[in-house]
Amino acid sequence: MNNFIETVIEVKGLTKIFGKGCPSCVEGTGPDYNTNICPYCKSIVACSNISFKLFKSEILGIVGESGSGKSTLLKCLYLEQQPTDGEYYLNYYKEGKVNIFQLDSQEKRYIKNNLLGMVYQYPHLGLDMYISCGGNIAEKLINSGYISISKIRKRASELLNKTEIPLLRIDDFPKNFSGGMQQRVQIAKALSNNPPILFLDEITSGLDVSVQAKVLDLIKSIQQELKISMLIVSHDMSVIRMLADRTIVMKNGKIVEMGLTDQILEDPQHPYTQLLISSIL
Ligand SMILES: Nc1ncnc2c1ncn2[C@@H]1O[C@H](COP(=O)(O)OP(=O)(O)OP(=O)(O)O)[C@@H](O)[C@H]1O
Question: 69 CB less than 6 Å from ligand 1?
Fold first, then answer.
């Protein structure tokens, strides 16, 4: 843990409620009640008072069953969704002294284009299937300030090389690629502007087991080489076991357990975590 001393993200009290909400939403939902639906106003409490830190160069896993609030949390952090409440600090932006959720849309766009990368579960969310693989990467590079065509092409080639996509496919459309290859193009695109932080949402769901293993290996080697901080969401404890240094376990919108992945695997404290782990043993 000594390597993980610098905090790159700090999240405090993040809550996202779908519906009109009421003062009892947060207290009336969660794993103790086995629901994320408020019994009083029937709103959905997707994320409930979530607080954690992401450290420099670590992979932090977020695991939980479908509906536990993982994707909503990631969407809030990638600034695609505005939370109902909470604070979000990035040490790469104004030395971590400004609550990112309170910024205007222009500043949020700057942060998305320069500091954050995202790899989605479904490649069509991260890629335009009808522009070339190189064109997809170029789009992101242009958004982050690249203007020289030759530099863009050079950077795109470097990224394809890093993500093990044959260079001769640079002008092909991602719609003609296999699922595993589409995920690798997404990873190349997400890395193109050298973001210090990368979010990954269920990136291996829907891939064959052998392809899953290759994508996970790629993520691991990229992280080791580039030392970027990653937040990886999965419902699959074996994905988290393979990648994450620390793990957050979520259920019904709340954190039930957080700690070193090895510790959580060896000595899970919460019954829900014990259940998740028994599923992979
Ligand atoms: N736009 C929305 N409007 C209403 N409810 C939503 C919306 N998005 C998510 N929810 C609800 O919020 C809760 C958390 O959903 P979320 O997608 O974050 O969970 P998850 O853990 O990522 O699960 P999955 O892996 O199935 O996506 C669920 O009950 C979901 O139905």
Answer: yes
The pLDDT tens digits for 254-263 are 999 999 999 9
Q: What pLDDT does 206 receive?
A: 79
pLDDT of res. 14: 98
Write the residue with the smallest CA distance to atom 28 of ligand 1. 67
pLDDT digits (tens, 9 = 90+) for 63-105: 999 999 999 999 999 999 999 999 999 999 999 999 999 999 9
Amino acid at residue number 268 = P
Q: Please report which confidence band the pLDDT of residue 281 belongs to, taking 50, 70 and 90 as the band edges.
A: low
Ligand 1 contacts CB of residue 234 (under 6 A): no
| Ligand 1 in reach of 122 Cβ (< 6 A) | no
Indicate which residue's Cα is closest to atom 25 of ligand 1: 66
**Is the Cβ atom of 36 under 6 angstroms away from ligand 1?**
yes
Q: Could you tell me the CA-to-CA distances from 86 to 15, 34, 41, 83, 158 in Å, in that order?
A: 6, 23, 21, 7, 38
To the question of pTM greater than 0.90 for the whole model, the response is yes
ipTM > 0.85 (yes/no): yes
Ligand 1 atom, smallest distance to 250 CA:
21
Taking each helix axis from N to C end, the angle separating 179-191 and 149-162, rounded to the nearest 10 degrees, works out to 130
Contact 242, 203 (CB under 8 A): no
Residue 253 CA: which ligand 1 atom is closest?
14
Distance CA 82, CA 108 (A): 11
| Ligand 1 contacts CB of residue 70 (under 6 A) | yes
DSSP β-ladder status, 246-251 and 254-260: antiparallel
Tokens of residue 159, six digits: 């990224």
Instruction: Determine the Cα–Cα distance for residues 281 and 269; give it in Å rounded to an integer.
Output: 16
Determine the distance separating the centroid of ligand 1 and the alpha carbon of 67, expressed in angstroms. Answer: 5
* DSSP letters for 171-219: TS-GGGS-HHHHHHHHHHHHHTT--SEEEEESTTTTS-HHHHHHHHHHH
